[in-house]
Amino acid sequence: MNRNSPPSLMPTYAPFDVAFERGEGAYLYDSEGKKYLDFASGIAVTSLGHAHPHLVKALCEQAGKLWHTSNMYRIPEQKRLADRLVEVTCFDSLFFTNSGVEAMECALKLIRKYHYERGDTGRFRVISFTNAFHGRSLATIAAAKSEKLTKGFGPLPEGFDQVPFLDIEAVRAAITEETAAILIETVQGEGGILPVEPDDLKKLRELTDEYGLLLVLDEIQCGMGRTGRLFAFEWSDIEPDIIAVAKGIGGGFPIGACLAKAHVATAFKPGSHGTTYGGNPMAMAVGNAVLDEILKPGFLDSVVAISQLLRQGLEELKARHSDLITDVRGLGLMIGVEMATPARPLLEALIEEGMLAAAAGKKVIRLLPPLIITKTEVKEALEKLDRVLDAASKN
Asked: What is the C-alpha to C-alpha distance for residues 132 and 62, in angstroms, rounded to an integer?
């Protein structure tokens, strides 16, 4: 290899120096057999933990029958999953993708197509918020406008107007005759685990109704049971026009979806949008298996109960380590612990302790455990965090 050649993997990540061979429930095991409590869940993806028996069974059975046909033909399990999601939500129609960013791209296209079909061809601009993260396509980084995401990738697609997070008056001031929609994460993830309060969601819904706009929610990370409701917006009394979901919907298998109300979804016609892999038989078998578990009676109530236990323990840690922890916030099992110091060294120390977490920005430790964690595992996590914080205080 030429000495000046790049590595075989493009250096787009700065991974921690650990590799995993297998997982079971809330635990991962590295190549040397060391056990780790997983409170990152692949960034809110492995919602039912690792190697969940029902998911493994569904995947293996489908793998032995059919992997792919393309959307040129009917896919029964795709229709079944769509029907089930429509039945338990306020939405009427959906489009399956392979990822969250593809779900967002579908949503952004649907916004424009909706207004086009109504004759409002001049409406195409979307209002977004500071600290947002909607993915890494050109359109979604244009919506987020973060220098970290956009530097070196200009010129960016036109059509996004950003305002300060939850500044409702700034939103109103940004609305013009070209505005088509308001886009917001119901709980900001990468931005620091910042939930949108129900009253603010209501105000945004009122603005979109007043001006004939669409309200679009990004629940790629906070949806599919993560907050103790199927969708995080269900903690409020509003309904969005479009929502993008992914991550937890596949429990580790790449699945995303863009769901919409009927008046919006009908803007798409045959040929308006498409995907080669989205909604394939393998993905749909797993997606239906995930939904089997999440919709079991009492499942979401158990998420709420265990999240309260975790939150209480974290508040106690905050009181004991007030020199390090400045805030504990979040919704359900999507919790941010804001630190007075950079998060990465603490995450590295947690790995040594046998626990995984994620960062959200520079100073927030993001806790995203699987939705099936137990009281025992919460106690273990709190003890590991406590030891790491004790050591950090002494240094």
From this structure: 37
